[in-house]
Amino acid sequence: MPLPIPVTLTPTTTATTDSYSITVKPGTTQMKATGAATPIVGFNGTFPGPTIVATKGRTVQVTQTNGWTENITIHNHGHKVAASSDGHPTDYIVPGASKTYTYTNDQRAGTYWYHDHTMDLTGAHVYNGLAAFYIIHDPAEDSLGLPSGSYDVPLLLQDKQFNADNTLAYDSNNNIRHGFLGDTAVVNGAVTPYLNVSTHKYRFRVLNGSNARNFTIQLASGASFRVIGSDGGLLAAPVTLTSLNVAPAERYDLIIDFSGAAVGSSDVLTNTDRDNPSIGDLVQFRVTTATADTSTVPATLSTITRYTSSQAVSTVPLTFSQGNQDWTINGLLYDPARLDVFSTLNTIYIWELNNQSGEMHPFHKHLTEFQVLDINGSPPPPEQMGWKDTVAVPSWGSAHVIFKDETFPGTFVFHCHKLEHEDHRMMLQESVTQ
Ligand code: C2O
Ligand code: CU
Q1: Of 87, 242, 287, 365, which one's alpha carbon is 20 to 30 angstroms from that of 327?
Q2: Which residues touch 18 (CB under 8 Å, ≥6 apart)?
Q3: What is the DSSP-derived secondary structure letter of residue 264?
Q4: Rounded distance, CA 321 to CA 327, Å?
């Protein structure tokens, strides 16, 4: 079936603010090409949820109404935000209630996403549909001449498991170890869809929104593509690759160039990570129309000023381990009443991420984007040299990240973004003070 493109919401605007009202409620989506539509729970009852497009420096207010039967809380992933608008795991919107989240968009243009973050239930809630794109633009990026409009396409990569009646199957308790792995690729809510493309460069905003699956993406033809952005916006320069690892919650903006392709030809974005059950093809591109391409991919995309280790005031060790029925950080299970790590605003820290388990853990920190200093003692690959909020810490391996919390004191979580690990308490709290 054709690749669905999530709708972009139209805000109510004032001179400074764009306002939105969204209701979380049940709905249905035609996920499989044949058979019944699949019941979901989504933003406005849709899956994927509607895209919010923001402008750097303009405030966005989103009023989320809970039209469902379970508690929810909504986190804008990658957003620098006051704690009261961060979607803390116990900051519930109870059924029937509403909450207005304020996002100042005082951060880099890039591909972000909003999703449910309810304590112990994030996996089930995101799996059932509570995930959507949040894209920030700024004039500097808009002036680069990158592919835009219909040539700028979000790709939400996920895996699902279907029952015979096309309802979604999910059992978090059977998946404590790996996290949930489905047997079916779903992109923007459709099973292995296709996209009709023109002979033009495309910017694909790739988001791994799966619960726990790692994707290693490549084009079936073996053609290269250019990575231009990561979690926190544009890289300094494009990185040409034929294969790219995308861990849960990571985003990469890719340029795939069909300008030299023949009308009638096709290619497939496929996954070569062979976690079991394995998933191969994700989305097919069918070149159906010829068009002139005036977009450009400049050799210099943005300025990334790298931190150096010597700027940090301290190094905080964090060890990720498997418990019996749960997952721990520094031997601790998530407790919303306990503060675990203490940081001061405008101060640079290194967090040392030690993985003492046989599973990769995609580490995610709230409040600020960080830079990756090293992975297993080596500099990160060039596509991880920009700003990030999620980093894959290899099994039995390590990584160091460096960051500076800014603007908003308060209590923020950090956690593994395999959602079943998070729900089995692989999450701690950072207390950020003036
Ligand atoms: Cu994408 Cu704490 O989450
Ligand atoms: Cu994990």
Answers
A1: 87
A2: 11, 12, 54, 55, 58, 59, 60, 61
A3: T
A4: 6
> Quick one: pLDDT band at residue 343, thresholds 50, 70, 90?
very high
Q: Phi, psi (5° rounding) for residue 124?
A: -65, -40
Tell me the two tokens of residue 26: 């049940």
Match 């500097």 to its residue by tokens.
140
| C-alpha dist (Å) from residue 5 to 34, 49, 341 | 19, 10, 40
The b-or-e profile of 177-212 (16+ CB within 10 A means b, else e) is ebbbbbebbbbbbbbbbbbebbbbbbbbbbbbbbbb
Asked if residue 365 has its Cβ within 6 Å of ligand 1, the reply is no
- The predicted model gives 234-239 an average pLDDT of 98
Beta bridge partners of 363: 391, 416
- Calculate mean pLDDT across residues 286-298: 98
Ligand index nearest the alpha carbon of residue 419: 2
Counting Cα atoms < 13 Å in the Cβ hemisphere of 391 gives: 30
- Ligand closest to CA 81: 1
- Nearest to residue 155, comparing CAs of 3, 266, 46? 3
User: What pLDDT is stored for residue 128 in this prediction?
Assistant: 98
With a 6 Å cutoff on the Cβ, whether 364 touches ligand 1 is: yes
Cα 16 to Cα 119: distance, rounded to the nearest angstrom: 33
Sequence-separated (6 or more) residues with CB below 8 Å from residue 82: 102, 408, 410
State yes or no: pLDDT of 432 exceeds 80.
Answer: yes
Strand partners, 74: 116
Task: Report yes or no: 28 and 117 within 8 Å, Cβ to Cβ.
Answer: no
As a whole number of angstroms, the distance between CA 212 and CA 201 comes to 30
Cα–Cα distance measured from residue 286 to residue 263, given in angstroms and rounded to the nearest whole number: 8
What residues form DSSP beta bridges with 282?
none
Helix (H, G, I), strand (E, B) or coil at 309: helix
Beta bridge partners of 370: 388
Nearest to 82 by CA among 305, 290, 345, 292: 345
Whole-model pTM? Answer: 0.98
Q: Which atom of ligand 1 is nearest to the CA of 75?
A: 3
